[in-house]
Design goal:
The protein is mainly α. The protein has a domain of 160 residues. The protein has a two-stranded antiparallel ribbon with strand order 1-2. It has a two-stranded antiparallel sheet with strand order 3-4. The longest helix is centred in the C-terminal third of the chain and has 31 residues. It starts with 11 loop residues before the first strand and ends in an 8-residue tail after the last helix.
Length: 230
């Protein structure tokens, strides 16, 4: 009797089948690159605007918030992707909130232990990552329907796109508003002696929206396909 040919199980790496698709295939690279431009969470999806208003007066808090969101999104996407076949549909939002809240508490305690000065500035806003629509949106729209590796890349990509905008806005607000970057004066005293003055309007919340609006205009003038058709 002839032996029945049974397909051998293909080896996997980090829950990715090595023979099906490269780890950094074109599609996987797009998960990292698209949120930086074509599908940016803030400038294209118009999500997470509150953070751009609240914590972009200085560059340092914006960088710390960007790193915090990156850690939370990457970890939460991986966990939800691992559990996606075990989560009942009717309680999926609750499970997602629990996972995100656990990651946020972990990040909050790490900041409290190792960067207390920044923690005092961001303590309220770190907690609000739990309700950040970018984080919950990616869990609901992507992690629940894709594998671990793709979900990890999606989390990294969207967090990087979000953080990029925060850092750009904070760069211009701190530079033009106080003449400093990361707390260090970069505008020379000689320029002040010639009559230059810091633009105090840049330190007000409305200027964050205006700065984001200028960036959106620049982005769409460079990438015409992002312009909505009437």
């Amino acid at each position: 009797m002839a032996k029945e040919n049974t397909p051998k199980q293909k080896p996997t790496l980090f829950f990715v089948n090595k023979n099906s698709e490269p780890l950094f295939s074109k599609k996987n690279r797009a998960l990292l690159s698209d949120p930086m431009d074509d599908n940016n969470p803030i400038t294209v999806q118009v999500l997470g605007i509150c953070s751009a208003l609240a914590i972009t007066v200085q560059l340092k808090p914006a960088i710390v918030m960007s790193i915090s969101v990156l850690v939370v999104m990457a970890a939460s996407n991986v966990i939800i992707s691992l559990l996606r076949n075990l989560i009942p549909n009717r309680i999926r939002i609750i499970v997602q909130l629990v996972v995100v809240a656990a990651m946020v508490v972990l990040v909050d305690q790490v900041l409290k232990a190792f960067a207390y000065d920044v923690y005092k500035e961001l303590s309220i806003f770190i907690g609000l990552i739990i309700t950040n629509c970018i984080v919950m949106g990616r869990l609901e729209a992507f992690a629940l329907g894709n594998g671990v590796w793709k979900s990890f890349l999606d989390g990294i990509g969207n967090a990087a796109g979000y953080g990029f905008i925060l850092i750009v806005v904070a760069f211009f607000r701190e530079l033009l508003g106080s003449g400093k970057l990361l707390g260090y004066q970069v505008v020379p005293d000689a320029l002040y002696a010639m009559g230059y003055e810091n633009n105090g309007l840049m330190l007000l919340s409305p200027m964050a929206l205006i700065t984001v609006g200028v960036f959106i205009w620049f982005q769409r003038s460079r990438n015409r396909k992002l312009i909505e058709k009437n």
